[in-house]
Amino acid sequence: MNKVNKIIRRDLNLSILTGVTMLVLLWSAVFFGDAMYSLKNIQSMTFQIPEFGFLALAMMLSNMIGGIDLSIIANANTVAITSAYILNGQWAFGMTGSARIVAAVAAAVIVSLLFGLLNGVLISRTSAPPLIATLGTMTLFQGIGMAVTGGASVGDIDKGFAQMGKATLMQIPLIFWLFLLTAVILGTVLSKSKFGRKLYLYGDNPTASRFSAIDNDKMCICTFLLTGVLAGMAGLIVLSRVNSAKVGYGDSYLLQTLIVCVVGGIDPNGGKGRVWGVLIAVVLMQILSSAFTIMSLSPYTKKLIWGIMLVLVLGLNYALRKYTNRMELRKSLKEGC
Amino acid sequence: MKTKKLDRFQGILLLIIIIYSVFVAIKNPAFIHIETIFDITRVASTTLMVAIGLLVVMISGGIDVSFMAVALFGSYTTINIMIETGIDNLAFAFVSAALIGGLLGVINALLISWLKLPPFIITLGTQNLFHGIMTTFISDKSFGAGVLPESLHAFGQASVFKIKDVGLTASVLPVLLAGLATWFILYRTMIGRGIFAIGNDEESARRAGFNPFRIRLFVYVYSGILAGIMGMMYVAQTNALYPNKLVGDELIVVAAVVIGGTKITGGQGKIFGAVLGVIIIYLLNTTLIMIGLSSSWNNLFVGTILVISVAVTSYQEKVKNRNNLIFTE
Amino acid sequence: MGTVLEARHIYKSFVGVQALKDINIKIESGKIHCLAGENGCGKSTFVKNISGVYTPDSGEVVLNGSLYHSLTPSQAMREGIQVIYQDLSLFQHLTVAENIAIGRLKSDKKRIVNWKKVHAIAKEQLDKIGVHMDINQPVGEISMANRQITAICRALAQDARILFMDEPTTALTRTEVDRLMNIMLDLKKKGLAIVFISHKLDEVFSVADTITIFRNGEKIGDFESKELDKKSLSYHMTGREVEYPRYRRSVKDNTPVLEIENLSRKKQYDSLSLRVCPGDIVGVTGLLGSGRTELALSLFGLNPADSGRIKIDGKEAAISSPMAAKKLGIALLPEDRFHQGLFMDREVKENISSAIVDDISARGLLDKEREKKIAEDYTRQMKVRTPSVETAVGTLSGGNQQKVVIGKWTAARPRVFIMDTPTVGIDIGSKAEIYEQIHELAADGMSIIFISDEIQEIIANCNRVMVLADGRCVRMLEEDDLEENAEQTITELIGRHAEETAKGEAL
């Protein structure tokens, strides 16, 4: 019991989150029963999670180094547009069938890496505040997408690629497995690898990490490369699910990814948080989202609820922080005297 | 403060505007028509209103992305009241929208002061909160032309003066008034100096006798009031109101203010800079077609200018800091 | 000259810790009163109790004849108390004039700003102390000395009768310190009471009329300046005779590890040369801005030199980044422990391993057992007092935190360890332990560059000393030079040179 207590103490936030998620699971089971936990609904949820999940992981990484990356959604859309042009043959350069799919995925990776590189170089070289720098690149990425498409939706993509988005493995969509795998790898990298450790140190105090012979510029660029690729993956998944791409898809995701990060215990000032928290928060978010759909709430009501949720969670976190600080102070005083 | 010299950054912006304008004028002489210029002024006037509010917030070291939701909330609620009660009075419309805007500003200020978290995240939350409350609890109907109070429509059509039958929109009047009021507040009152002071260093401001909480309250309320007025101006101009307008357009205003040289770190910023930023954005917006590009190219140009402007100003700051052995990232 | 402030039986405690115990102090107008004591002895807490930042638990304050049990900041200001904190509390982007006048306008409850008045106030105050400067410049663009003067003018503008100055000289060069001292003496003549907080003994003696010594939250006593000498003052401050153990180099190897030849950086330092051998502890001393920290940062790759050469083991090395420095075996303990040295929220073990993350990883993965073992080894070796290596480093005392920084870099096994003011803000017990550690590291063959402005500390711990003034090396003292009268020599070197530059500037 003592051990359990200790674990709960050590990560109060994660424990509360898990508890709340359990409660929501239970509540939705009681209220919606089959509507929520039918195979069909679970499948549809697992179809919806990945695109949002990848964006949430991207936002998480940028939060962990103390910045908010506003450009992830623009990145995803423009990547999707690029791939869509290859898949519908406009930029295929004579490629057909699976060659097109390979080229589209390769292009997505390259373009998203370039976008990430631009963010990383801009922020590390000029010390620009990430929020403002990514506001600029967001506008730029959107601008590229708009300039290329004129604002129209790019569709008519290769059937084979569209199939990939709908394929399942053991009743669960492939893209969900892909998301899960990515999250597990990312979680392992962050908690076990030297890159992860440096990321936490850099995020916690970039000046001290510079004075500890950690290559800050490299850390910043690598983080934004990762953020870029994760956003690009989200773009590919959107494309395979919706079968088309356009500028402005999923704009409301910005708020939701931030909520998920805050709920998942990521400190927007950097240096704190874990993938598991975000993962649980993504699931929680999806269940709520499904519940709202079953209840057929209007998009406006959803907005209201997300808004309340963000403010509420921030308030709770604040109260929690105050409480734990006081406990720690009391503890250290006891030990000190 | 006596010597009104243009700083270098603003000089460069002005130069860019002039060179670009000359370029457009050569490519397409239609640009020099008074009509074009008045048209740019008309569409830019609403944005300018909120840009000024945002500038004040950013000088205090904060940021606000809820102002468009506040603008919509204020105008929408006021229009509803006016239609329900049959009041058709311009003054009532503006005062009511401004009051509602100010009230929502209080909520922003309180949350930011209490939670002590990045104001971007908090105001993103309140943006959705306000918009959600409005659409859920007040109404989500759309109002087309004809339903709206006549006095507003008249204001939207009114012009200050006319040159060759082309009128300069009356919307410039509230903007001009707001600009003057803001200038007076920022440079001639103690609360304005307090806004600069807390943006420079909150702890020092407290030691000098300022009350950061009260200043922050003022800042967000002021920004809310300007947003409310802007909402009304918008209704008058478009002569229609939908519950999904305005919200979502706040980041371009942030971009304009940043292009104008205001730093997100606070303590600095000039009204003229914000004006230049807004002008650049709307100049591009309306003239791209004239030089043979569709308006889809808009963001590409705005984004490029923003990225360059941020890169240049941040890099200068970094070099200065490094020479003083300050290693902030 | 009457008593303007009398504090009686002031007690103050913070969550169980007694910070002030029964403090009685009288401050008279027209005198310079110095509060002396080690870091954390309660002198700053005392000032905050008088200026209204804190409320004393008990006790009373008599100000200009009226009795207060507690004060608010505005009451304190109305009674003429002005405090200049160490960080000066100026507004970087506002002009000198506004910085000077803003407090006055605020206390006059002005709502509208009259810029003519602002400029008039600023000019009047600057004239009062006989200084000329451009009042339209933003404070962020003027020198530290002028910022100090701006802060003094701001205090004077608010009719200060008692001026508290918390460590006003740390960021000033010698000439600037002299100018400041003259201003202080001048203000004293005008009848102001000045309370001066400092740990620099020569400054204390040069201006103070009365010295009050604090130790562990208690007042040890009031002394006339002439009653004390440096030795008795430091005895009273620490409560013990401080005899630093002298360091004697025992390593026989005389092949230089690090050589610097004519290293220069514009506006910072000029043609510095130095050879450092294994077992050397080379002291670098000089005032702030003399080039000491600038040189240290250059050797660590954070402040590239313009010209000159750096050689490691006789081979020329380009140190372009801290990563390159670390690879060459150079470590730096930075000046600012709080922001540059440590990750305050993170565990002791993560701090100790922070510079060797690559070295304790294999195939990209971190070896956490090895990390823990290294952390435990080095906390033991450095005598860090911590509940465990999993404790957050920010909860430790200043001395233990600094030991963690030393441990962190020792774990990287550097060959040259640069320590920039390693004992600042540290209690005397930890200081002794840190000196001992440094001696041991040097005895094992490490080369150490020890930067400090405490001359006694330099003499005790170094076998060679480079004295810097205005970016130039004014003297290199070898082992023999350090035997006799070294303290006087160094003080004179710094002082004389500063006078010469002052004369040069005057011409």
TrEMBL record, chain A:
InterPro entries given in the database record: ABC_transp_permease
Membrane topology: Multi-pass membrane protein
Alphabetized UniProt keyword annotations: Cell inner membrane, Cell membrane, Membrane, Transmembrane, Transmembrane helix, Transport
Cellular compartment(s): Cell membrane
TM region(s), chain numbering: 12-33, 45-65, 72-93, 99-118, 130-152, 172-190, 219-240, 252-268, 275-298, 304-320
Top-level division of the source organism's lineage: Bacteria
One Gene Ontology CC term in the entry: plasma membrane
Major place of residence: membrane
Pfam families named among the record's database cross-references: BPD_transp_2 (PF02653)
Gene Ontology MF, one: transmembrane transporter activity
PANTHER family associated with the record: ABC TRANSPORTER PERMEASE PROTEIN YPHD-RELATED (PTHR32196:SF21), ABC TRANSPORTER PERMEASE PROTEIN YPHD-RELATED-RELATED (PTHR32196)
Name of the protein: ABC transporter permease
Protein species of origin: Extibacter muris
UniProtKB/TrEMBL annotation, chain B:
Residues annotated as signal peptide: none
Swiss-Prot/TrEMBL keywords: Cell inner membrane, Cell membrane, Membrane, Transmembrane, Transmembrane helix, Transport
Membrane topology designation: Multi-pass membrane protein
Membrane-traversing stretches: 12-32, 52-79, 91-115, 166-186, 217-236, 242-259, 271-291, 297-315
Record bears the keyword Magnesium: no
Record's keyword annotation contains Cytoplasm: no
MF-aspect GO terms: transmembrane transporter activity
InterPro entries, sorted: ABC_transp_permease
Superkingdom of source: Bacteria
Places the protein is found: Cell membrane
Cellular component GO terms, alphabetical: plasma membrane
PANTHER family: ABC TRANSPORTER PERMEASE PROTEIN YPHD-RELATED (PTHR32196:SF21), ABC TRANSPORTER PERMEASE PROTEIN YPHD-RELATED-RELATED (PTHR32196)
Protein name as it appears in the record: ABC transporter permease
Annotated source species: Extibacter muris
UniProtKB/TrEMBL annotation, chain C:
Keyword presence, Nucleotide-binding: yes
Annotated keywords: ATP-binding, Cell membrane, Membrane, Nucleotide-binding, Repeat, Sugar transport, Translocase, Transport
SMART domains xref list: AAA (SM00382)
Database matches in CDD domains: ABC_Carb_Monos_I, ABC_Carb_Monos_II
Domain (ABC transporter): residue spans on this chain: 5-241, 251-495
Gene3D superfamilies in UniProt: P-loop containing nucleotide triphosphate hydrolases (3.40.50.300)
MF terms (GO), sorted A to Z: ATP binding; ATP hydrolysis activity
PANTHER family with a match to the protein in the record: CARBOHYDRATE TRANSPORT ATP-BINDING PROTEIN MG119-RELATED (PTHR43790), XYLOSE IMPORT ATP-BINDING PROTEIN XYLG (PTHR43790:SF1)
Name of this chain's protein: Sugar ABC transporter ATP-binding protein
Organism: Extibacter muris
